[in-house]
């Protein structure tokens, strides 16, 4: 179930439908429901804070829910409580602030997502490090996409010894106009190649500034 068909919720639904997942999409706003009625599997006008309505929709039999309400914190909190009380264990909830996220966690959300905060972090890394993409995980680990720095050009990866010198692992390489390939020790890097790198955040940041 996806609660709330704003920009975030509709993007979640769109991707799930593309993956072949059966989705029950709900929103209190009739216009939003109408907008997506033809696109998503089941689209219903309903209030996620209404326990009786949720039971009638079969919420206790669902496996997972995404509560994609951002700006209305009261509705977001009450929706998570209602779905949790209806017996759902796996609830992904969108939060707009750390405090909002903390409340959601306490009342039954199994996963809290901070889309704006995470995207802001990514853009900051892209801007400062010359990265074309950046993804941060827990425990100080990140994956980034960046141009290959000059010290790696025209030699195999084994020779640049990136892992020992920079504590970075090169996962994939992309030559302009070609798809990504897995990086192996024999892969020769050229000027203009893009790399997918993984490692600890400070190491990734340091390495990618060499290419900026
Ligand atoms: P976004 O920033 O992703 O567009 P919004 O917070 O603007 O997200 O949108 C949230 C959506 O959730 C709105 O379409 C709103 O009508 C819907 N919504 C709000 N409260 C409820 C509720 N109690 N039950 C179901 N849908 C709700």
UniProtKB/TrEMBL annotation:
InterPro entries, per database record: NAD(P)-bd_dom_sf (IPR036291), RCK_C (IPR006037), RCK_C_sf (IPR036721), RCK_N (IPR003148), Trk_Ktr_HKT_K-transport (IPR050721)
Domain RCK C-terminal: 132-212
Pfam families on file: TrkA_C, TrkA_N
Molecular function in Gene Ontology: monoatomic cation transmembrane transporter activity
Domain of life: Bacteria
UniProt domain RCK N-terminal: residue ranges: 1-119
GO biological process: potassium ion transport
Entry protein name: TrkA family potassium uptake protein
Lineage: Bacteria, Bacillati, Actinomycetota, Actinomycetes, Micrococcales
């Amino acid at each position: 179930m996806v609660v709330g068909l704003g920009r975030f919720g509709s993007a979640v639904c769109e991707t799930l439908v593309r993956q072949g997942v059966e989705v029950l999409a709900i929103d209190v706003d009739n216009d939003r429901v109408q907008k997506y009625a033809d696109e998503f599997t089941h689209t219903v006008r309903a209030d996620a804070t209404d326990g009786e309505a949720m039971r009638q929709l079969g919420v206790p039999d669902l496996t997972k829910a995404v509560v994609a309400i951002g700006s209305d914190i009261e509705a977001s909190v009450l929706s998570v409580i209602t779905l949790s009380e209806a017996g759902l264990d796996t609830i992904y909830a969108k939060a707009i602030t750390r405090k909002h996220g903390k409340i959601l966690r306490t009342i039954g959300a199994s996963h809290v997502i901070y889309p704006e905060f995470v995207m802001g972090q990514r853009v900051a890394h892209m801007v400062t490090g010359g990265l074309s993409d950046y993804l941060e995980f827990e425990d100080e680990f990140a994956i980034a996409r960046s141009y290959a720095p000059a010290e790696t050009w025209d030699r195999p990866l084994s020779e640049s010894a990136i892992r020992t010198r920079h504590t970075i692992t090169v996962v994939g390489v992309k030559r302009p106009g070609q798809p990504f390939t897995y990086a192996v020790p024999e892969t020769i890097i050229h000027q203009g190649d893009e790399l997918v790198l993984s490692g600890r955040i400070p190491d990734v940041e340091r390495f990618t500034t060499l290419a900026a």
